[in-house]
Amino acid sequence: MMWRNYLKEMGPAWIISAVACGPATLASVSVAGATYGYQMLWVVILSAVFGTTAQYLAAKIGVLEGRGIIATTEQRLGKSWAWVLTLDALMATWLAAMVLMNALSGVTGLVTGIRTPFWGIFYGLLICGFIVRKGYRRFETLCKLLVIFVVSCFAATLFMTDLSVAGILSGCLPRLTGGTDGAMMMAAIMGGAVHITIIGMHTYNTNARGWTPQHLGLARFDTIASMGVAFGFYSVAIFLVAAAVLHPGGVTVKKATDAALALKPLLGDGAMRIFMIGIWGAALSTISPTFMAGAYFLADKMGWAPDVKDRRFAGAVFAGCVLSMAGPFVKGSFFLLLPLMLALGLTGTPLIIGIILWLLNRPEAGQAGKNSPALNAMGGLTLMVTSFLAVRFILTRFGLL
């Protein structure tokens, strides 16, 4: 009976999973698998594990504090820390929105044959109108359906692929692939699951559902089901397909069509269609919550009601949509811009993880609010590994490593 109730009531973490199961993760694991074979499988697996850990920690903050991460930080650490966290979150979130709109516009152009950056204006207004008029619950339902659809698109492909057991086992052993590109791909893969935007947003998602400390068990189940299982399967499946099909064929993935054409032997003439529908759904399910996240961060700092009925909050959503419209005008392949966006986002993520761990371990938190030793160990490991990959990416980018 308890599990049946959990299945009915889960939801907030599925919005996070919808964001994580986006075109950026798809591009990152596809490029990594095609370029390095199975070598980065350990990063893909850890991204699901650490992503689940970070999201549960965020859910605990939202449930125990009864407010978002920005307001909690201001109350517990002061206005200066709150402003730093707000600016960090907004920069990462709005950068993501611009690149995601570039991707959504790009894939629409590939599907329709009408390649124009003005698709961004169309989608920006359409998505903003949907969010403002339909509200949170219907938006959440749409995200659930899109995540399920996207995962299903790649499930069949995985089971039709000739996988190398030896390669998979070897890929589970941690190793650092040298060079700037290798460092960026590792940071991008991790950034797809452990990102300041989705970590911060989850504190607001739990509040939007009115969850209380009595719902911690539900929050844990919700997070494991969506991030650990759904996102984990999504990212591992795409990576394994790329490593098994694209890498042996010597396919260099620079565009979405490169990955799609490589799957033609498995899916026949429908390969391109299925792949493009999947990436379109992934882009749409990712960009919508990204607009909401930016509005949540700004509203929380300014003291506005986190509700689309509040004109100021609706204005913040609209502002994010308008900024994203500039994304399609940026030149370059969106399939290569997406991993770079995730890697840059990872560099701003250790701050929020560190703040959350401090909040959940301060003496005033009480016995119910404090983390267990096991959760602290996982949280600490998440912080250390993400920090290492982020710093390594920065150092290699500037030629210092």
Would you give an account of this structure?
The longest helix has 41 residues, at 119-159. The N and C termini lie far apart (54 Å). The mean pLDDT is 88. The chain has helices at residues 2-9, 12-20, 23-36, 41-65, 69-77, 79-112, 119-159, 165-171, 179-193, 196-208, 216-246, 256-262, 264-267, 271-302, 311-324, 334-347, 350-359, 366-369, 373-397. The protein has 401 residues and is mainly α. α10 packs across α14, α16 packs across α19 and α17 runs antiparallel to α19. The chain has one domain (2-397): Amino acid/polyamine transporter I. The protein is globular and about 55 Å long. One of its GO terms (molecular function) is manganese ion transmembrane transporter activity. It is found in: Membrane. It comes from Desulfonema ishimotonii. Keywords: Membrane, Symport, Transmembrane, Transmembrane helix, Transport. Pfam families: Nramp (PF01566).
Helix proportion: over 70%
Got a strand count? 0
CATH architecture: Up-down Bundle
Protein structure class: mainly alpha
Q: Kindly, what is the distance between the CA atoms of the first and last residues, rounded to a whole number of angstroms? A: 54 Å
Question: Which range does the strand content fall in?
Answer: under 5%
